[in-house]
Amino acid sequence: MKKHILILALAGTFWACGGNKAETKETTESNAESNITSSAEPTEVTAVSKSLAPKDFSQTMLFATKKQIIDVRTAGEYNASKIPASVNINIEGADFDQKIAGLNKATPTFVYCQSGVRSQTAVDKLVAAGFTKIFMLEGGIEAWRKANLNLEMAI
User: Fold this and answer.
1) pLDDT in tens, 96-109
2) Are both 9 and 53 inside the same structural domain?
3) Coil, helix or strand for 4?
4) CA dist 89 to 24, 33, 49, 62, 151, Å?
5) Do both 78 and 56 map to the same domain?
6) Does residue 52 sit in helix, strand or coil?
7) Global pTM value
8) Could you count the other beta carbons within 10 Å of the beta carbon of residue 96?
């Protein structure tokens, strides 16, 4: 008799667990449907935009394994002197938005200009375009030069 009660108790436990699994499956499917519905709504991605002093800007670039360095000055200014490994995308150029659209929005993006004014305009446009990790050089290349940091100069 005790064996029968034990067997019935074990069977009831297995049956109850099996019922929970089915219920869990339904709940999971229901949650998955909810997630599908909610994932159709836009998710806000917060952009991180920091203005850094020249030495901090340099160190942050150094430690970033992947990066994009953008000089937003004119081609003439860029050709005269530039931070090594930078690319020139003139903020005043008609094709600025088109050129930044070709960049990776999740890759850390370092921005500089001559004194910092055009960089801020570029940072605002990068944030609006969905870039998430943006670093701006405080004081521009003038501050970089005063800090005696490495520049590529035209010969």
Assistant:
1) 999 999 999 999 99
2) no
3) helix
4) 54, 44, 19, 21, 18
5) yes
6) strand
7) 0.71
8) 17
